[in-house]
Design goal:
Helices cover 78% and strands 0% of the residues. It is built from seven helices and no strands.
């Protein structure tokens, strides 16, 4: 009885190890290709995003000139812009995309704050800085290509078995890029 139990356990261990090796061998190449394609489609976005966030620095300066330099939103925007500048020296597309999304969210928050404040809305320098930022466009085709690639990568790394291989090999999640777009101007009253 003891000998049978040992052989059964040994056979079970061999089956599990063999299955794991086969899973890693079959899943890893697809994950590698998809992760490489995500990095490849991210690179062309860096230049237009850097130009766009350069304009966002002008928004920070205008907020400070308008007396909002001590506000948490302005401080957070300055910190995130500083993080972006530091991340440009790295090759971590996931963290860069996450920071870009954060900057876009902060830009939307600034836009909403300025729109909701009579004092800030009346500040010509701030309004011009926001308009200049909004005018700095990122090609939609590049954003769509990157987002489609990320979604394909995420589909391929999801699932119980693929997720195990992805986490063991360090294939982390990549966020899609969500650009902030200003709300359309209200139609003039007749």
């Amino acid at each position: 009885m003891g000998r049978f139990f040992r052989w059964t356990v040994l056979a079970l261990v061999v089956v599990v190890v063999t299955g794991t090796v086969i899973l890693v061998i079959t899943v890893r190449p697809g994950l590698q290709d998809d992760a490489q394609e995500v990095r490849r489609t991210w690179k062309p976005l860096l230049q237009p995003l850097t130009a766009r966030y350069g304009q966002l620095s002008g928004v920070v300066a205008a907020l400070e000139a308008a007396g909002n330099g001590d506000r948490e939103m302005t401080r957070q925007l300055k910190r995130t812009l500083s993080d972006w500048d530091l991340l440009l020296a790295t090759n971590d597309a996931a963290v860069q995309a996450e920071t870009a999304d954060e900057l876009e969210g902060l830009a939307s928050r600034v836009r909403a704050t300025v729109t909701g404040s009579d004092r800030l809305r009346a500040n010509a320098g701030l309004t011009k800085a926001i308009t200049t930022f909004d005018a700095e466009k990122v090609p939609r085709a590049l954003v769509k290509r990157y987002n489609d690639t990320v979604l394909r990568y995420e589909r391929n790394r999801d699932g119980i078995l693929r997720g195990i291989v992805a986490s063991l090999d360090g294939y982390d999640a990549h966020p899609t890029l969500q650009l902030a777009t200003p709300a359309p101007a209200p139609a003039p009253a007749p």
